[in-house]
């Protein structure tokens, strides 16, 4: 149990375009989903925390107008990188925290999305 | 101030050579401490959650322990497939944000 998927796994786009990344909890309902960014050989950097039906909470320094997060249901959150530029190229990872039982207080991570902006 | 510090940054072991990874933390109140394994190009894989000092958990060749200031991930007789980056994270009692360490990159040489 506790499987989180991300789509797409890899995306290459031109500078100025927008890219949407989906994060789904496949076999559990997630009260909270998190979006992270990871640079090569570095740890995870939390970008934002989202709860179903409410606005996401962004970390300091993360542009909310550039990284749009929608948490439409207890199993789906999306991150849209708007007007992407080469410096946005990175590995984006989502995680989900379970609703109840043994899944609470533990984040389960998706496999990540490699974004390359040309 | 860093809430989570992992050491060493990198560790090379011979197959079968046991060792420990350290995760020290400074939070006002610990809700939980988490260990993850991350392979290159993939998302972290959950290993353990520890909640209180003195708690221990085991899974195959891995054993995690917790004190009031740090956690150890002991690796007994490691195999090459144990090579990965091991991440530690803590969650405070207040709020649900996780603080991640920078990880320990483990390489097990056959």
Would you mind describing this structure in some detail?
The complex is a heterodimer of chains A (118) and B (110). Chain A contains no helices and eleven strands. Chain A is mainly β and 118 residues long. In chain A, the strands form two sheets. In chain A, strands 2, 4, 5, 6, 9, 10 and 11 form a seven-stranded mixed beta sheet that branches. In chain A, strands 1-3-8-7 form a four-stranded antiparallel beta sheet, with no helix packed on it. In chain A, a hairpin with a 5-residue loop joins strand 5 and strand 6 (57-58). Chain A starts with a strand and ends with a strand. The model of chain A has no long low-confidence stretch (mean pLDDT 89). By secondary structure, chain B is mainly β. In chain B, 0% of the residues lie in helices and 58% in strands. In chain B, the strands form two sheets. In chain B, strands 2, 4, 5, 9, 10 and 11 form a six-stranded mixed beta sheet that branches. In chain B, strand 7 and strand 8 (70-75) form a beta hairpin. The mean pLDDT of chain B is 92. Classes of the chains: A mainly beta (118), B mainly beta (110). The interface between A and B is medium-sized, with 24 and 22 residues.
Question: What attributes characterize this protein structure?
Answer:
heterodimer, A: 118 residues, mainly beta, four-stranded antiparallel beta sheet, 0% helix, B: 110 residues, six-stranded mixed beta sheet, five-stranded antiparallel beta sheet, 11 strands, globular
